[in-house]
Every structure is written in structure tokens, then in C-alpha cells.
Specification:
The chain contains no helices and 12 strands. The protein is mostly beta strands and 249 residues long. It has one domain: Porin. A 12-stranded antiparallel beta barrel has the order 1-2-3-4-5-6-7-8-9-10-11-12. This is DUF481 domain-containing protein. InterPro entries: DUF481.
């Protein structure tokens, strides 16, 4: 999953088979990105979700090993934890915490906690449409390592720290198109409280998977993040395309 400022958390959630008590996946992948220098990456993402009584828990993590120009780096990753607790027949309370870093864009570290109310809009045996809304707190520490224009870097650059309370609005659609193909599409809108239309982030994620077997699939994933006012001078639009082997249970 791409991260930068936005972690596309809906990629972790499998909702079509409610009879399962435990589900997880292991996704090694290769990636090319359009950043400051040519960037090639091998990464591994793993997540596991399990149910205890009526509650559901998800734990996910990712580590990235990258070639950035002529430099070998551990460029990014995250650790994510989520708890889902049913408040009502049609409302789930999602509480989550994450730690995230992505040096190629200049994000040295991010901490975030939040809570969402999640509502199923359409659910059947082959597809689901969901919406969520809630507040979150975030702390970010940025550097200029992702700035491509040297003239935009101060003579004595120092890390920049920012804290914000944001709203988090998302929608997610998952569909089993056939026995072989599954589709997962999500959209996110994250405005700062008090500045809903002037200080915000947009993100989306689209993934299609061809399933060779019940447990092995090949996934094509496209994600993007749009931040019109980045903390440091980097591109306002970030693209991420990856192909990975999805091993699930």
C-alpha cells in the first residue's frame, strides 16, 4: 500500500466472507515511482485480521527496500493497528493507530490516531459499498530529502514538525467480478478541522486481482495522493503503481 501522508487502509479489509474468523495476506511486489530520481523498489506488505466475539482486529506492516538513484535505502514503511466494534446493526466504530515513514518524499516520521463511524451502504455475497467518517490526530516530521529543486531548499535546512486534527471521510467498493477477478476501489478526503476547503488531502486507490487459486493471486494496484499545500516543496500529486503476488489465507 502506498502511504506518504495517507495510508490506504481499506486495502486491508476483507468484507465479503463474514464467516471467516482469521484472514491475512502476504504481498511481495516491485515498484517504479516518479520522484526526484529514478526509483526502484522491492517491498513486502503483510496484514492479518481476526475476530474475537463481535469485535474485529487488524494488524498490518510494510517494509520497503529501494534503489534511489545510486543509493540503497530503506525508504519507507508503516505499522498499523485497528479495532472494529459494532455499535449498531449498521454502524461499526473503527479505532486505529499508525506509525509511518517515507524518506523519498521527505516524511521522516508520522504518528496518527483516530476513530471512524463505518456504515455499510450495500452488502451482498459478491460486493460491498461502505462509507466512513471521523476525526484523527496526526504528527509529522518532514525534511527536504524529497525536494527535487535545490533552489527551494533553505541554506541550513532543518526538519519541520506539524500537528493537525483532521476529519477523515472515505468510501470503499469491493466486488468479486468473477471466480478469478476481484476489484477494490477507495477514495479519501481529509480536511483539517476549521479549513475544510483550503487545507485538505485527497487520495484514491484502485486494485484488481487475478486469482490463480483461492490463496494465490496477482494484483495490479494504482494509488495517488493530492496535497495542494505540502509542508515542504514537493510535487502536489503523487502516483504509485505496483504489481504484486498476493498470498492469502
Amino acid at each position: 500500500m502506498s502511504q506518504s501522508q495517507v495510508l490506504h487502509t481499506e486495502n486491508f479489509n476483507v468484507i465479503l466472507d463474514s464467516t471467516k474468523r482469521v484472514k491475512g495476506s502476504f504481498i511481495p511486489s516491485f515498484r517504479y515511482r516518479n520522484v526526484k530520481q529514478k526509483f526502484f523498489e522491492i517491498e513486502n506488505t503483510a496484514d492479518i485480521s481476526f475476530k474475537v466475539n463481535r469485535q474485529a482486529f487488524t494488524l498490518a506492516n510494510k517494509l520497503e527496500y529501494s534503489r534511489f538513484g545510486d543509493e540503497d535505502i530503506l525508504s519507507g514503511g508503516f505499522v498499523y493497528f485497528e479495532n472494529r466494534n459494532p455499535l449498531h446493526q449498521n454502524v461499526l466504530l473503527e479505532s486505529y493507530a499508525l506509525i509511518l515513514w517515507q524518506e523519498i518524499r521527505g516524511l521522516r516520521i508520522k504518528y496518527s490516531v483516530g476513530v471512524n463511524a463505518r456504515v455499510p451502504l450495500v452488502v451482498n455475497s459478491r460486493e460491498g459499498l461502505f462509507a466512513g467518517l471521523g476525526p484523527s490526530y496526526e504528527f509529522e516530521r518532514w525534511t527536504y530529502s524529497g525536494t527535487s529543486d535545490p533552489s527551494l531548499i533553505p541554506p541550513d535546512p532543518k526538519p519541520i514538525e506539524v500537528e493537525k486534527i483532521r476529519a477523515n471521510l472515505y468510501m470503499n467498493f469491493k466486488s468479486k467480478l468473477s471466480d478469478e477477478f476481484t476489484l477494490d476501489i477507495s477514495g479519501y478526503y481529509q480536511p483539517a478541522l476549521g479549513n475544510f476547503f483550503s487545507n485538505y488531502r485527497l487520495a484514491s486507490s484502485s486494485e484488481i486481482t487475478y486469482n490463480f487459486t483461492r490463496n494465490i493471486g496477482l494484483s495490479l494496484l494504482y494509488q495517488n495522493i493530492y496535497d495542494p499545500k505540502p509542508v515542504v516543496p514537493i510535487s502536489t500529486l503523487f502516483h504509485d503503481v505496483s504489481v504484486g503476488l498476493n498470498l492469502s489465507f
